[in-house]
Amino acid sequence: MKGFIFFCLLIISSWNAIAQVDFTATASRTRIAVNERLRIEFKMNVDGDNFTPPNFVGFQVVAGPSQAVSQNWVNGQSSMTKSYTYILKPTKTGKVTIAQAVMTYDGNEYKTIPQVINVTGAVEQPKDVDDNSIRVDDSIHLVAEVSNSNPYLNEAIRVVYKIYVANQTGVTGWNELDSPKYRDFWSQNIDNRNQQVKNGTYNGEPYRYLVLREAILYPQKTGKLEIEPLTLDVQVQIPTNKRDFFGRPYMTTTSKTVSAGKREIVVKNLPAVGRPASFTGAVGDFDFKVETDRAQLDAGESLTASITASGSGNLKLMELPKLKAPQSLEVYNPERNNKVSTNINGMRGSITDSYTIVPQFGGKYVIPPVEFSYFDPKKEQYVTKNSGEMLLMVEGDAPTTANATTTTSTNNGDRNIIQNNAQFAFIKTSTQLIDQEKTYFFNSTTYWSILGGSFLLLPLVLLFRKQQEKRSADVIGNRVRTANKLSKKYLSTAKKNIGNHELFYVSLEKSLHNYLRSKLRIQTADMSKDKVELLLAERGAQDETRKDFVELLASCEFARYTPSSNATMKEDYEKAGRVLNDIDKQLKK
Question: Which is the CATH superfamily of the domain at 475-586?
Answer without folding.
Answer: Nucleotidyltransferases  domain 2 (1.20.120.330)
